[in-house]
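Q: I'm writing up a methods section and want to include an example of the input and output format. Could you take the sequence below and give the corresponding predicted structure tokens, formatted cleanly so I can copy it straight into the document?
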Amino acid sequence: MTAKFELYCEYIHCCGKKVLVLGEVETEKMAKKWIQDQTLLKKHPRLPKSDLIRTCPVIHCPAKLQIPRYNYRQKAATLSPTPQKKR
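A: Here is the clean output for your methods example:
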């Protein structure tokens, strides 16, 4: 079984830290390259409409302009259930 890596970004807002999962890749090398690309291009993730940053009532909230921190983590392995023997 090969390890998969989950790509995510996180940012701080007045109500706490928010982690947004953006995808997954097969290798750690691909994950590192993705982080480098996102950081160098200063990309902003597309946030859902219900996200705290989009719904913040503060007009000049500095959190709305921040560039999130990009990272990756090894995805938890999912085990397939073992078939039960008939008795």
